[in-house]
Write a structure and sequence with these properties.
The structure is a homodimer. By secondary structure, the first copy, chain A, is an alpha+beta fold. The first copy, chain A, is built from 17 helices and 23 strands. The first copy, chain A, has 3 domains: about 90 residues, Nucleic acid-binding proteins (OB fold (Dihydrolipoamide Acetyltransferase, E2P), Beta Barrel); about 290 residues, Bira Bifunctional Protein, Domain 2 (BirA Bifunctional Protein, domain 2), CATH 3.30.930; about 120 residues, Gyrase A, domain 2 (2-Layer Sandwich), CATH 3.30.1360. The first copy, chain A, has an 8-stranded mixed sheet with strand order 6-9-10-22-21-20-17-11, with helices on both faces. In chain A, strands 1-2-3-5-4 form a 5-stranded mixed barrel. The first copy, chain A, has a 5-stranded antiparallel sheet with strand order 12-13-16-14-15. The longest helix of chain A has 23 residues. Chain A is globular and about 90 Å long.
Chain lengths: ~575, ~575
Amino acid sequence: MYRTHTCGELRAENIGQQVTLSGWVQKTRELGGMTFVDLRDRYGLTQLVFDLSKNPELTELARDLGREYVIKVTGTVIERENKNKKLPTGEIEILASQLSVLNASETPPFTIEEESDGGDELRMKYRYLDLRRYPLQRNLELRHLMGIEVRNYLHQHKFFEIETPYLIKSTPEGARDFVVPSRMNPNQFYALPQSPQTFKQLLMVAGYDRYFQIVKCFRDEDLRADRQPEFTQIDCEMAFVERDDILDMFEGMTKHLFRKLKNIAFDYTFPRMPYDEAMEFYGSDKPDIRFDMKFNDLTSLVQGKGFVVFDQAEYIAGINATGCAAYSRKELDALTDFVKRPQIGAQGLVYVKYNEDGSFKSSVDKFFDETQLKTWAETMQAKPGDLLLILAGAKKQTQHALCELRLEMGERLGLRDKNTFAPLWVVDFPLLEWNDENQRFYAMHHPFTSPKPEDIALFDTDPGKIKANAYDLVINGVEIGGGSIRIHNRELQEQMFKVLGFTKEESEAQFGFLLNAFKFGAPPHGGVAFGFDRFVSLFAGLDSIRDVIAFPKNNSGRDVMIDSPSAIALEQLQELFLTLKKPE
Amino acid sequence: MYRTHTCGELRAENIGQQVTLSGWVQKTRELGGMTFVDLRDRYGLTQLVFDLSKNPELTELARDLGREYVIKVTGTVIERENKNKKLPTGEIEILASQLSVLNASETPPFTIEEESDGGDELRMKYRYLDLRRYPLQRNLELRHLMGIEVRNYLHQHKFFEIETPYLIKSTPEGARDFVVPSRMNPNQFYALPQSPQTFKQLLMVAGYDRYFQIVKCFRDEDLRADRQPEFTQIDCEMAFVERDDILDMFEGMTKHLFRKLKNIAFDYTFPRMPYDEAMEFYGSDKPDIRFDMKFNDLTSLVQGKGFVVFDQAEYIAGINATGCAAYSRKELDALTDFVKRPQIGAQGLVYVKYNEDGSFKSSVDKFFDETQLKTWAETMQAKPGDLLLILAGAKKQTQHALCELRLEMGERLGLRDKNTFAPLWVVDFPLLEWNDENQRFYAMHHPFTSPKPEDIALFDTDPGKIKANAYDLVINGVEIGGGSIRIHNRELQEQMFKVLGFTKEESEAQFGFLLNAFKFGAPPHGGVAFGFDRFVSLFAGLDSIRDVIAFPKNNSGRDVMIDSPSAIALEQLQELFLTLKKPE
């Protein structure tokens, strides 16, 4: 028997008991003739004490323990002289009578504490040691608990969790697939799913009504900081529903998670903001509405006054940075540098200080007098003491840049508290996006998304104007989930494939099974998928998903711990009827 | 709004209510001026009635409904004249006042009833239609509920569900891997996991203590009837435990599942049978102990009496088929044919009838007199009316054949009731298996399995004799799960790799990350993995796992519904630096 209790369990009421604990040596220290050992496991820390005068042999053994040794110790729970109020076990310690070393440890390459001294690469290589740290354990526990609560909620609402296959079929639409050569079907390949989209729709055709799955998905994309080649979705679908049935159901799930895991109760319905409004007021389809600071379109107000930058711009808009009129030259320069960064891309920044004394000072005083600036301030609902920040240029780029500036100002003004959560649904997305390079439309969501019924006629006249019956759940500027009402009608699905430039043969070859299924009584249906990694990292207060994943990959898609991917044996290639080409 | 109720919900107390239902047309029939429609959804069947005299237009519309049309109907709940006691909704019907066709359906290629008239291939191609049948829906509901209960139990016992990666590293040991070419790391491959074995061990090294995961695993094997290239495991691992801690924990889980899902309470500890005993008495490491009929080793008793078949045999053993002395010549011939089948492989069958009158009649009367046969009968605890069935030959083959014969007799005697469950743990497996072809040992379980401590010395003298600290959960002759205490000591792990014929370089290249992890304080640990598909199919009373999987593959690893695997585009191959070789 390795333990009677865990290292997080013993309290004052256990004093006098004989106990056995197992765990890792966090640290040892000497004090007079006493040796103290902090013993750690998943559940907490307990202090062990060895008394040289009473048990010299055992104490010598304890003195030799290194960091991260695995030991088993038996002893008596005694009251601690110097109580540690920060530790749940801080009232007691174990006076050891037996000690055995279960496994020794080399000195770990970094410290295993709340904050580690190891660099990113080192901690990834020794992930199993980094995972011993409590911050990572808390993340994985949170992830476990969120999974449990997602399942509780959906089970209560009569959803079935149904596993869909991982070895499926490659389709050129969407992101790049990972493929898997088939040995039994030479020269043919499976693909790993980017999502179970078509399978969950087939389950609706099959009558399952309410499906979900917490499931791995795969995308062979060039990885940015916060993307992983494999990631986890909470994938859901319902039949015989309209959009608001879905929003209500999953708003309920989101509230359930907040209540259970963050002890936060939302007593209101999440705002449902049309995409056009999100773009107009926040310049983003995932607005952070923890703070206001909406965009003000100034285009018509400020043009025609001789300021060529404005006069040539497609779009001019500003935000009101409340209480920032006293910003120094240096601070304003820093903001200008910020918006001119390549990834933000503005040409420059116009500011207007509405001073406390009611006067104005701006970077465009040459072109606009106080009366004019006052009109701007009124339009933007500014008060004395506020700072107006204005960008001008092509509409899409300027919206993007102003969105970034707004977020930056929110950050500077402390309006983006990680413990405040502001969810909303963004709805009525465009159905299609025009791609200039390939001169064709792409589905903004995916090709199975239903247009809004009133827009179907636009397929023949102006497809770019069609709104989709699609929606995203956005929290604090992060897209947590998204979905749509699907097309359940074969003719409409074919119309959609046509506008995407698929020939009948192509759509048949790729999605024939789905089009076929639609012949046999497909019910109206729709669904949503949540990015589970991102949902957990939002709850964990992290900016990256990496530390809510036990074994993440780096930006080259490598697992540096197991050193994968790697070369495989020649016989394996031969069995798969493959030969390698050297990259140039 | 598509429905106020489901098709399984309405009862007598709803009479008089106005309701809306949606679902599939199961069938329509005419009776006088009335049209009756059975409407089906996941929750049940409800009868709709259309009255030609009251609503001719609507009734005409109803008459045109085909099988599997999706409709929405509004009407009043009325009492049914001819109540259908078999149906939960059988007391009522809906007098329809509105009807809309949500989607039409072509005539499905087979009937969607409890029993379908479609052949296997057709039902696989139209799996989404086959999945509409209630037997399949019940299987998938059972699977969902088992998943929920597994998680409930393990969560209550402080396990964390932790996701391990799917894109891992290929190792030549064990079954064949599916591999995934990496685009970003040219000429290198990931492998899909055959199990999360090494990752769950790393989680123990990382201090997680109690891990589980319901997870897909992949094996590129030649498929037998009841194997799938992707299958699901309940994968579990614990640290600071001995074997019996694990058996107790997962016996608890198994009992929890039986109680919750089958309403069966086991009030005893599952038998723990050593492998040697299982082989001796049942000729199998997965004995079906729903019935007794143990093997009786007759070798020393029957040899040396001049019957050359016995005298030349390594092993002679028999079973007592209680009450079968009256078997006819034809029945005995059929049994002889059964044991001589190539997959069973016996040379012949010796029978001894212990007649009701106390006399004996055997197929070896020439060599053995009644006194001798009586000794056999006593040894085998036979009574008048019993039939002794005896096989002889090489030990291993004869055990196998007699095991099959025992199961066949159990079947014939009705001793293998699908609603009776007899679980046991088989323990103390051999650690290693000698492979004659490759002239080396293979790990019987896997290379991380710990030998029993008392057997470690045998590594130097007689490795084949070492027993493993391994165990299987067997229910009704089916291996439902298996696991072991793992090696947690680097030196012992190296010794194991050595006996398996790995060079130091090979073991470093393949499992270096695990051996490295063992340097930093690996705790004692062990675990178990359950075949989830098989567990569900056992509970569902099915012989195959196929119908507890929503979208299974056929015996060539093909998904005939989506037609996968399939060819991929040349550009995809080029991006992956691969070229295809034509199979010869």
